[in-house]
Amino acid sequence: MREIVSRLNSSYLQNERSIWICEPESVSGASDLVVFLDGERYRGCVDALAVIEALRGQLANSWFVFVSEESPEARWRECPCYPPVGMQEIHENVRHPPHTRHAESVPYTIKTPGTYTLDGNLTYSGTSEAITVSASVVIDLKGFTLSGTGPFNGQIAIYCQNADNVTVQNGRVELFADGVDFQAGAQEVVQNLILLNNELSVIMQGCSYCTIQNCLIVGTGTGSSPVCEGVYLTTDLGVVVKNCQISNAFDGCASGATNGNIFIANQLSNCDYGLFLDTTDKYQGNVEINAGFAGGIAVGYENN
Predict the structure, then answer these.
(1) What H or E segment, with its residue span, contains residue 85?
(2) Can you name the residues that pair with 224 across neighbouring β-strands?
(3) Is 94 helix (H, G, I), strand (E, B) or coil?
(4) CATH 2.160.20.10 in the chain, residue ranges
(5) Could you write out the DSSP letters of every residue in 11-46?
(6) Within 13 Å, how many C-alpha atoms sit on residue 176's CB side?
(7) What distance in Å separates the CA atoms of residue 232 and residue 240, rounded to the nearest whole number?
(8) Residue 247 contacts residue 221 (beta carbons within 8 Å)
(9) From the CB of residue 288, how many other CB atoms can be counted at a distance below 10 Å?
(10) DSSP 3-state assignment of 110?
(11) Which of 176, 186, 188 has the alpha carbon at shortest distance from 146?
(12) Which of 122, 249, 144 is nearest to 197 (CA)?
């Protein structure tokens, strides 16, 4: 009988305690969920695990969840499984056991779905990728900074290839050749990032139905030698770039060979081109200062 040890967090009751989730060996059709409060007592004094094992043939499709009492005082004061709140959260933990991992150093390779966070600022001194992703994950920088050693030395901060449903959020990426680089993925999200002094801050190539939003991007400078891009899209479909502030680049947003991307409510300044778009792209509500628009289809009259 496989057992997962996790933590039950209740935002409603503002408490946290241990839970033990015992999975059935196989699930066929509907399954039952049995919840034991005072988990330590049932596991220790009653030896419930031995009883369950003895009855396994009759309980083949059943899940068993033991909720820790933490302490007698906490048990009676907080009662974390008072319905419906506690039961709802137990069901959520059973269906989606938390898999939060912490990247404490780079390079770091991610092959397993889950949530990955930084616990502090990290600097990458290698010559390839700081973080490599090949699974559906959330990468939450937690407000910390991932740094390279310079924007023109070939380093990539976060590289994702052939993986869908990847989110990168909440932190700072600086001094890389490529900041966040997606190759051949779908439903990717880049949000709430500060990207500073990267040659190419956000790249999507061969991606579809993705979102880049609420990012601050400051490039390495205007001019074409070398070319600095804030957002660079090629052979993409249905990528939405919105509410981003982009400056100090050759192209604030560049999009080519696409099947149609969308650019909404971005602020673009000090760029050779604020938007340099494919003929199938559309844009609305963008504002530029010293950064013109080229290509694309303007929607409405809100672009200035």
Answers:
(1) helix 85-95
(2) 227
(3) helix
(4) 101-298
(5) TTTTEEEEEEEEPPS---S--EEEEESSHHHHHHTS
(6) 34
(7) 12
(8) no
(9) 20
(10) strand
(11) 176
(12) 249
Q: Is 9 helix (H, G, I), strand (E, B) or coil?
A: strand
Class of domain 3-95: alpha beta
Question: What is the location of CATH 3.40.50.1820 in the chain?
Answer: 3-95
Q: Can you say whether the dihedral through the CA atoms of 155, 149, 113, 232 is positive or negative? A: negative
Q: How much is the pTM? A: 0.69
Element containing residue 158 per DSSP (H, E): strand 156-161
Per-residue pLDDT of the chain (304 residues; tens, 9 = 90+): 678 888 877 665 567 788 888 888 776 677 888 998 888 888 888 888 888 888 877 877 888 999 887 765 556 555 544 444 445 554 555 444 455 788 999 999 999 998 999 989 999 999 999 999 999 999 999 999 999 999 999 999 999 999 999 999 999 999 999 999 999 999 999 999 999 999 999 999 999 999 999 999 999 999 887 889 999 999 999 999 999 999 999 999 999 988 899 999 999 999 999 999 999 999 999 999 999 999 999 998 888 7
Furthest C-alpha separation in the chain: 75
Distances (CA, A) of 296 to 78, 111, 231, 284, 303: 58, 37, 15, 10, 12
What is the 8-class DSSP label of residue 139? E
Q: How far apart are the first and last CA of the chain?
A: 63
Residue range 101-298, CATH number: 2.160.20.10
